[in-house]
């Protein structure tokens, strides 16, 4: 038994996760009733990641900023440009795909128990209010915009503090990072429980009626991940982008796919950035920020489902309006994390651009909830893996300019 466990832990984490994934699928297909208790592993894994992420981000950012020396280079400007560019291009890809492969839906009853935001101004207002949220409340609710703002402020005010104070902050952030490694070591069990829960409770039968819609949604996200993002990365680093792209998808995207939570995947992304040898001062800020504003997957969801409503109702759309939709979807997606319900509840906002009644738009939201098992998984995988991808791209581009081998 000891030799077996020793051999197990010698395998890479990705291989162990894949093993957990396969076991979860087999159990869900063969003995779903008997194996049902293993779902607790998934709940515990996601719960642990969500619990540690807010406090990890707070101390990492505060420590990094407090010890940041004047004139020290960071790549935050480039990272933010990449985030915004990637989100807009994802929305544009979704709009083009929706015109090439128009989808119509059979609408039923509306979604009565959710409330969508009234406009872009409301979304941005909520985003700004999150910046000045009560710091304890921000930590409790995992409001990463608020956590970032207060951590940055604390870090700046501690720049002139005693060395012992900065050392304490650094020690706490190091300890939290080690705690994250311990939690991530249980990822194979967590993924096994999560995939078992999805397959045994939802199955795939309920999704077959929305096959074309899912094909367009998932096709767009895969195109962004495997074509658009590699082109962006190549332009910046001038070398083969696919090793970096595939590593981010493999080590960040897989866990994000099954946890379906960008917040829960923040510790995973932090660990991956460290393994890639990236600057801690940059990624300690860029990763939690990316979980809030880098929303390529959300932009795809908003665009595709909005245009599905447009095609269903037979509303004519010109190129100019479609371009405006891309911009609106990108802006809205950046505020998705500050809105209850995420990207799906921003569909009525985008639909209003075409004069679609709110009750009809909310029926599209209802369709989104039905296909959410796959839609949300692919969306989160794209969003979260791209956080690391663009953080690494910005730093590698800077190294290339300095003549340092990537």
From TrEMBL:
Keyword presence, Aminoacyl-tRNA synthetase: no
UniProt xrefs under Pfam families: SDF
InterPro entries documented for this protein: Na-dicarboxylate_symporter, Na:dicarbo_symporter_sf, Ser_Thr_transp_SstT
GO biological process: serine transport; threonine transport
Domain of life: Bacteria
Membrane topology of the entry: Multi-pass membrane protein
Transmembrane segments: 12-32, 38-61, 81-101, 138-158, 179-207, 213-237, 289-310, 322-347
Entry keyword annotation includes Transferase: no
Location within or outside the cell: Cell membrane; Membrane
Keywords carried by this UniProt record: Amino-acid transport, Cell membrane, Membrane, Symport, Transmembrane, Transmembrane helix, Transport
Molecular function (Gene Ontology), one example: neutral L-amino acid:sodium symporter activity
A GO cellular-component term linked to this record: plasma membrane
Catalytic activity: L-threonine(in) + Na(+)(in) = L-threonine(out) + Na(+)(out); L-serine(in) + Na(+)(in) = L-serine(out) + Na(+)(out)
Coiled-coil residue windows: none
Family the entry assigns: Belongs to the dicarboxylate/amino acid:cation symporter (DAACS) (TC 2.A.23) family.
Function: Involved in the import of serine and threonine into the cell, with the concomitant import of sodium (symport system).
Annotated protein name in UniProt: Serine/threonine transporter SstT
Organism of provenance: Trichococcus flocculiformis
Gene name of the record: sstT
């Amino acid at each position: 038994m000891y030799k077996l466990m020793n051999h197990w832990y010698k395998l890479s984490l990705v291989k162990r996760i894949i093993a957990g994934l396969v076991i979860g699928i087999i159990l869900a297909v063969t003995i779903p009733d008997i194996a049902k208790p293993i779902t607790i592993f998934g709940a515990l894994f996601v719960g642990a990641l969500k619990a540690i992420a807010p406090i990890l981000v707070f101390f990492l950012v505060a420590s990094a900023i407090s010890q940041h020396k004047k004139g020290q280079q960071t790549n935050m400007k480039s990272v933010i440009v990449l985030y915004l560019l990637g989100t807009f291009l994802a929305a544009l890809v979704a709009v083009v795909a929706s015109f090439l492969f128009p989808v119509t839906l059979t609408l039923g009853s509306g979604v009565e128990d959710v409330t969508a935001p009234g406009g872009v101004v409301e979304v941005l207002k909520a985003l700004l209010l999150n910046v000045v949220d009560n710091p304890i409340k921000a930590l409790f609710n995992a409001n990463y915009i608020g956590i970032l703002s207060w951590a940055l402020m604390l870090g700046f005010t501690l720049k002139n503090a005693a060395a012992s104070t900065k050392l304490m902050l650094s020690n706490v952030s190091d300890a939290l990072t080690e705690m994250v490694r311990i939690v991530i070591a249980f990822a194979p069990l967590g993924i096994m429980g999560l995939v078992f829960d999805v397959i045994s409770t939802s199955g795939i039968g309920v999704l077959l009626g929305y096959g074309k819609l899912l094909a367009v949604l998932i096709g767009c996200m895969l195109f962004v991940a495997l074509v658009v993002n590699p082109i962006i990365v190549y332009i910046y680093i001038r070398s083969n982008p696919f090793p970096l792209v595939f590593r981010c998808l493999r080590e960040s995207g897989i866990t994000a796919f099954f946890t379906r939570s960008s917040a829960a995947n923040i510790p995973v992304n932090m660990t991956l950035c460290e393994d890639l040898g990236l600057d801690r001062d940059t990624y300690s800020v860029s990763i939690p920020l990316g979980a809030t504003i880098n929303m390529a997957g959300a932009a795809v969801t908003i665009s595709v489902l909005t245009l599905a409503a447009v095609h269903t109702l037979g509303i004519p759309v010109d190129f100019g309006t479609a371009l405006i939709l891309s911009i609106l979807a990108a802006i809205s997606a950046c505020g998705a994390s500050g809105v209850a319900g995420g990207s799906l509840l921003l569909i009525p906002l985008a639909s209003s651009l075409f004069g679609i009644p709110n009750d009809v738009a909310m029926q599209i939201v209802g369709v989104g909830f039905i296909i959410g098992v796959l839609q949300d998984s692919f969306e989160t995988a794209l969003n979260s893996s791209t956080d690391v991808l663009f953080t690494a791209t910005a730093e590698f581009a800077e190294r290339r300019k300095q003549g340092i081998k990537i």
